[in-house]
Amino acid sequence: MCKRLAFEGEADSVSAMTSVLPRTEWWRSAVIYQIYPRSFADSNGDGMGDLLGIRDRLTSLTELGVDAIWLSPFYTSPQRDAGYDVADYCDVDPLFGTLDDFDSMTARAHELGLRVIVDLVPNHSSSDHRWFQEALAAAPGSNERARYMFRDGRGESGELPPNNWESVFGGRAWTRVTNADGTPGQWYLHLFDTTQPDFDWSNPWVRRQFEDILRFWLDRGVDGFRVDVAHGMIKANGLPDWTAPVAGGSMGGAAAELAASRAPFWAQDGVHEIYREWREILNSYDGERILAAEAWVDPLTDMAKWVRPDEMHQAFNFPYLETPWAAQQLRAVIDASISAFSAVEAPSTWVLSNHDVVRHASRLALTAENPQGHGIGPKSAGLPIPELGLRRARAATALMLSLPGSAYIYQGEELGLPEVISLPDEARQDPTWFRTNGERYGRDGCRVPIPWEANSPAYGFGPSNASWLPQPADWAPLARDAQGNDSTSTLSLYRHALALRRAHELGTGELEWLETGAETVLGLRNGDVLVYANTGDTAVTLPAGEALLSSGPLGDGELPADTTVWLRA
Ligand code: GLC
Ligand code: CA
Q: Does residue 225 belong to any structural domain of this protein?
């Protein structure tokens, strides 16, 4: 159980700080910057980013012009899944610092007007968590085992797993435990790594623990939670066998994804009750604290259930993220998003990159299928041409930031960082890589520590040369200090776009499509800004008008291929 704050006085000052920020349903139009703590900034030179490193670099984010930060997990963890395997939900892992460091980082963020969202991982804990260790030590049928999904195996002596489910990271989703006397015992479910046992959310005890965890962080002054695997906590009764449709077969593409979200471990109706309870807890606090769902659910009309008025505030728009750089597909997903979310009075969100997907400066120029989570490496098919990827990424970002709603930015995308394809095998750490014997590269390529200073050790990531994943030798020109004074840099593009987005109130605006006469060119109006995005491979004539922003050089009266422009209406 989480200890509530020992130092009530300080807690008050932290939440008082939160409440001076404007209360305007800020989350409906906020730009939220994802910090991946291990790769953002390292204060002590051990090669691992940490909370004090974040605190001391926060002004770079106010300069960028974002409204909030979301931090991936920094809790006590054996780090088998980079912290998404939590061993104590109410403490900071020494790798990242202490609770005091967290408070200091949060106070600084609030002082700068940045809201702070933390990650909550409720589907599973680490197998190192005391709750799981106690479950292992207890007998089948005990209260301790009932916290997790323990089941007897099938077959004559329970030697077969309870069903055929597979782990998201590859391999089977069940692991058999050994009894105290050395004989084989029950099996437990883990939708992710073996070290990430799933909780049994039908157990009220589990619900109570998480209510305490929410309150623990709310008391500390956080402005919200990004909820990990928010579509997975409830499993279908009886845990029926399930076989994923083969992508590319008769159920290929979108149909396969749709069926995947019907799997007996995803998107079960019972999850919504949990979020309604959590929403009440958040509502009982001052300020406007939010819940944001990581729910890989298709179609968008289903995802919208996560953000009904009494549930969460936002859901990550993964269908948007997964859309290729193609005008008509983009128009369709933008329409579907706005209509699905507005039907439940929620804002749409927009996102192009995060710590689980191939960075969009590479992804948008891939020429072969690359399912989410597989990653890319030296032997992947259809590797991108870097210049093309960056050009498209900049154009895609300029389009995204013109849309009404809330947008997410993943650390490093404002520097135009590509996916790191050539990581040496021995450096890789994603459990996906190990669980598939190197068949899938996994997500390390988007998690490499980011460059701050062109001429410093580890590009200024920390005070030493150390970096938990090796940084490419050619990143100096991408460092933040190298881009700061260059008006054509990707960093300048982001800063400029964010400033204009704010000045023209695009986040709270309304979208109207403009006909462009070209299949490959999108045209839209948001308030007093006209946006044209050319996803084709030839330049098109641009309507006359003052260009406010352009993702790349404009030709004479022309919008080149893979370029987005904002014009004053
Ligand atoms: C989410 C996280 C991912 C993690 C997984 C298991 O998808 O974003 O990084 O590996 O959940 O917690
Ligand atoms: Ca460190």
A: yes
pLDDT, position 48 = 98
- Confidence at 244, pLDDT banded by 50, 70, 90: confident
- Whether pTM > 0.85 for this model: the answer is yes
The Cα 340–Cα 261 span in angstroms is 17
Q: Which pLDDT value is given to residue 245? A: 75
Flag whether pLDDT at 20 surpasses 60: no
Residues 36 and 108 in one domain: yes
Q: Are residues 403 and 384 in the same domain?
A: yes
Question: How many structural domains compose the chain?
Answer: 3
Structure confidence at residue 257 (pLDDT): 63
The radius of gyration computed from the CA coordinates of the chain, to the nearest angstrom, equals 23
- Ligand 1 atom at shortest distance from the alpha carbon of 169: 10
Strand partners, 18: none
Q: Domain of residue 337: give its range.
A: 25-123+203-496
pLDDT digit string, tens, across residues 475-503: 999 999 999 999 999 999 999 999 999 99
- DSSP structure string for 249-289: STT-HHHHHHHHTTSTTSS-TTHHHHHHHHHHHHHTSSS--
- Helical ranges in 343-402 per DSSP H: 360-363, 386-400
Query: Which residue, of 432, 466, 496, is where some domain finishes?
Result: 496
34-57 per-position pLDDT tens digit: 999 999 999 999 999 999 999 999
Mutate which of 70, 72, 74, 84 for ligand 1 pocket (most atoms within 8 A of beta carbon): 84
pLDDT band at 255 (very low <50, low <70, confident <90, very high): low
Ligand 1 site residues (CB inside 6 A) read 81, 84, 121, 192, 228-229, 294, 355-356
Sign of CA dihedral 481, 482, 487, 492: negative
The helix/strand/coil state of 186 is strand
Same domain flag for 169 and 119? no
Q: Give the Å distance between the CA of 137 and the centre of ligand 1.
A: 27
CA 136 to chain centre: 32
Position 503 in a domain = no
pLDDT of res. 256? 61
Q: Which has the closest alpha carbon to 451: 488, 416, 408?
A: 416
Find all residues with CB under 8 Å of 471, minimum gap 6, and list them: 420, 448, 449, 451, 458, 459, 461
CATH code of the domain in which 477 resides: 3.20.20.80
Judge contact between 92 and 141, C-beta under 8 A.
Answer: no
Segment 64-77 mean pLDDT: 98
Q: What is the pLDDT of residue 270?
A: 97
Task: Count CB neighbours of 293 within 10 A.
Answer: 26
Q: What's the CATH number where 518 sits?
A: 2.60.40.1180
Q: Residue 433's pLDDT is what?
A: 97
Task: For tokens 């050539």, name the residue.
Answer: 422
The residue to mutate among 117, 120, 192, having the most atoms of ligand 1 within 8 angstroms of its beta carbon, is 192
> Tokens for 190?
């883990």
Is 505 among the domain residues? Answer: no
Residue 24, pLDDT score: 82
Query: Which one, of 60, 68, 55, lies nearest residue 28 by Cα?
Result: 68
